Amino acid sequence: MDTQTARGPSSLGHRIRHRRQALGLRTAEVAERAGLTTDRIEHIESRPFALTGAELLRLAHALDLTVEELTGPRHPANPPRQPMAPVLEPMRREECIVLIRAGSVGRIAYSGIDEVVVIPVNYRYRDELIVFRTAADSAVAQFDLDPIAFELDLFDEGLRDGWSVLVNGLVRPATDAETEATRDHIDTWAGGTRETCMIIEPHRITGRRIRSW
Length: 213
Known about the structure:
Strand order of the largest sheet: 4-5-6-9-8-7
Shape: elongated
Largest sheet: 6 strands, antiparallel, barrel
Strand content: 35-45%
Number of helices: 7
Distance between the termini: 20 Å
Number of strands: 9
């Protein structure tokens, strides 16, 4: 039988609870996503339980994780499955903001001189603004209240599901105070001199989630 058993308050139960809290979700919301009851989620988080493979798969995706990420390196992920009933769902603005706040890499898209430019950036979400660093001579560093789009996503190619968040707004140079408050908290993976902080003022935040189980 495809079952995992915990005989006491398990590390997996604690991990599920901490991940749910990190996403800002109530037990009822996780239960709805996973197709389980609220009582079942509360039981898994706090008491001994026997968890079937199907429940493990559903919980992982309800928490925006792969099975391997949820269970840790000692528990191999289930093999990829063909989607059974794909559903595309809109996400609430509050849910999108939780995902933006938890992330560190997204993509910006803006109009260049003669083409649309899309590039990845390291960022930080602070005071309802998205902050990223760039080189002083970059094209986007010259913008001031120009339209821009910001996107981040997470997909599981094996299970063919995931989510994406899109922010539409205006980009402008950060003020001195904004630069001082955020510059040292943004780690630019690309290296080099990227001391110019830019601010995205979100006007519209939307998201979609596709579920395949």
